[in-house]
Design brief:
- 43% of the residues lie in helices and 29% in strands.
- The protein is built from 4 helices and 3 strands, in the order ββααβαα.
- The chain has a 3-stranded antiparallel sheet with strand order 2-1-3, with helices on both faces.
Length: 84
């Protein structure tokens, strides 16, 4: 079975957005909640997953993560809402 990769966006308790990529969204979300994820989510506790998108390759997922991280908050919200 081929491994799939995902780009995800988390909403934090202080209403910020965090974007990352992984091959297991739920496992990665648990790591973020336990303070074992990214440095950012240690001080901005994750509340919920608000966006996920699947990719066939790690390279595709990393490129999309990079693109999303450069977006404005407004454009990230449009992406989450499916209006972008």
């Amino acid at each position: 079975m081929d491994k799939k990769y995902y780009v995800y966006i988390l909403q934090t308790v202080d209403n910020t957005l965090y974007c990352g990529f992984t091959d297991d969204v739920e496992k990665r979300f648990e790591a973020h909640k336990n303070g074992e994820g990214a440095k950012y989510t240690r001080s901005h506790k994750p509340l919920k997953i608000v966006y996920t998108q699947r990719y066939e390759t790690k390279s595709e997922a990393m490129k999309e993560e990079y693109r999303i991280k450069k977006l404005s908050r407004q454009d990230k919200i449009k992406l989450i809402n499916g209006t972008c």
